[in-house]
Design a protein that fits this description.
The structure holds two protein chains of two kinds. Chain A is of the alpha/beta class. In chain A, 32% of the residues lie in helices and 26% in strands. In chain A, the strands form five sheets. In chain A, strands 1, 2, 3, 4, 5, 6 and 19 form a seven-stranded mixed β-sheet that branches. In chain A, β5 and β6 form a beta hairpin. Chain A is globular and about 65 Å long. Chain B is built from four helices and two strands, in the order ββαααα. In chain B, α1 packs across α2 and α1 crosses α3. The chains are: A alpha/beta, B mainly alpha.
């Protein structure tokens, strides 16, 4: 059975759903595939209120933004296939999917890959013990599955993921024994860090984890101070009584499907590692394949939604659903909002890195 | 110490085994994979790929930016062979 779709979107997170909505609004037929049993991606884990402008839902909790996006998609006739795993991409725009243990192939005129990112690991003695997990994994267990994976936590990394998940562990009834940060300063927003410090959570800057110990699971963790050369300073070890170690040391784009579509990849450390070369229309070096969201470099949900909209407009234009003039008008509005999202000390680095990616894309196509 | 640290948990490959492979000339993630099986397990390297990249970078003094992203083949998710066997049976 061959299913032909106009547009296939892989990933029903903020980027994928935003793109689907734009295409459907302009009359395109869209099928969205997601391996989870609920759409929304990471949005449904975000029980905290968002920052930023009112356009981006400041003050609204992440999962509410997800619900709204979803109902709009349904209104506009977007088909969403859940519990549907995409296992591969093949020549001639063939998408391999598995549903109920049966594989199918679907072809599409245009494909958007919006599969997000995976958590970066950190290796140390004992990191393979039960009780060591990604902070995102702990967040899924707590906010989605309502399971508290441990009692006493050590968080590795003080970026926003580490800080937000630490706070949510407290809200769920866990104890955060400490947060360690390799850099001399706290990495995430101070509003998050201050909330934790007011609750008495200790943040150890210029520290790293040396070891997790335990027989069958984590029973304690040893942290150590590191010098300006990032080498551990002997004699500064502190042993902490914890049963769970959460790793919040960054995310990296999930590139498996892009790699097998022969999309050109580049490494940009500031955006999380390897990512697909793309232009500001969110088009990859494979002209039928578009990307949006964290798979194009790690940012945050509001930017992922705007990138999704950009990709959606670009795809709709390429299918002849919108004329260039109208498309450019919409894109200008989106890009203006993206400039706002990529401003400030955290945003400027992302802006520069993204522009560098666009520049390298142009270099690549002119080769 | 480093022979105790597992890098690829799926295939149980240690840091020392990977360092040895690099010393013996494996200079890419794919090269390390072929010699040690790191990244050939259930998760297909989703967890250890970054760790292997960092080890190669450190041991060969090559910036990570200059390394090659490894090859990926379908299936990118764990699936039953049965599912593939059923692929588009309706066509036949």
């Amino acid at each position: 059975m061959k299913h032909n779709k106009q547009v296939a979107i892989i990933g029903a997170g903020p980027a994928g759903l935003s793109a689907a909505l734009e295409i459907a609004k302009h009359g395109g037929k869209v099928a969205v595939f997601d391996e989870n049993d609920k759409p929304g991606g990471q949005l449904f884990k975000q029980i905290h209120k968002f920052f930023g402008s009112s356009f981006h839902g400041a003050g609204v909790r992440g999962f509410r933004l997800g619900e709204e996006l979803l109902s709009q998609c349904k209104e506009h006739g977007v088909e969403i296939f859940l519990n549907t795993v995409v296992f591969g991409l093949f020549p001639d725009n063939e998408v391999g999917i598995v549903q109920n243990d049966i594989a199918h192939t679907v072809t599409a005129d245009k494909i958007l890959i919006a599969v997000g990112a995976s958590e970066k690991p950190l290796s140390f003695p004992g990191w393979d013990l039960p009780g060591v997990m990604g902070a995102g994994a702990a967040q899924t267990m707590i906010n989605i599955n309502r399971v508290l994976p441990g009692k006493k936590y050590l968080m590795i990394g003080s970026g926003n993921v580490g800080l937000v998940v630490s706070y949510q562990i407290l809200q769920a009834g866990g104890e955060v024994v400490g947060i360690v940060e390799a850099m001399p300063n706290i990495n995430g927003y101070s509003v998050h860090a201050n909330k934790l410090m007011r609750k008495g959570v200790k943040i150890y800057t210029s520290h790293t984890i040396k070891e997790a110990r335990g027989k069958d699971q984590v029973e304690e963790a040893v942290i150590v101070e590191i010098g300006p050369d990032f080498k551990p300073i002997e004699g500064t070890e502190i042993t902490l009584d914890v049963d769970t170690v959460c790793l919040a040391v960054g995310l990296t784009p999930a590139l498996e499907l892009l790699r097998m579509s022969n999309c050109q990849l580049v490494h940009v450390s500031k955006l999380g590692g390897f990512l697909p070369l793309h232009n500001d229309n969110m088009q990859t070096t494979n002209s039928d394949i578009y990307v949006a969201g964290d798979v194009t470099g790690i940012e945050e949900a509001s930017t992922a939604m705007e990138e999704g909209r950009l990709a959606g407009i670009s795809i709709a234009t390429s299918l002849g659903l919108i004329n260039e003039i109208e498309a450019n008008k919409i894109k200008d509005e989106i890009n203006q909002r993206i400039i706002d999202l990529r401003s400030g000390p955290h945003g400027e680095i992302r802006m520069k890195s993204k522009q560098d990616v666009f520049r390298r894309y142009e270099e690549w196509v002119s080769l | 110490m480093s022979d105790e640290i597992l890098i690829c948990r799926c295939e149980e490959v240690t840091e020392q085994e990977i360092k040895d492979a690099i010393k013996n000339g494996a200079s890419t993630v794919d090269g390390v994979k072929r010699v040690t099986r790191a990244g050939k397990g259930l998760c297909q390297g989703r967890t250890c790929r970054c760790l292997v990249e960092n080890l190669i970078s450190r041991e060969t003094k090559t910036p990570v930016e200059e390394l090659e992203y490894p090859n990926n083949r379908p299936p990118v998710r764990v699936m039953k062979v049965k599912a593939l066997a059923e692929l588009d049976k309706e066509d036949q």
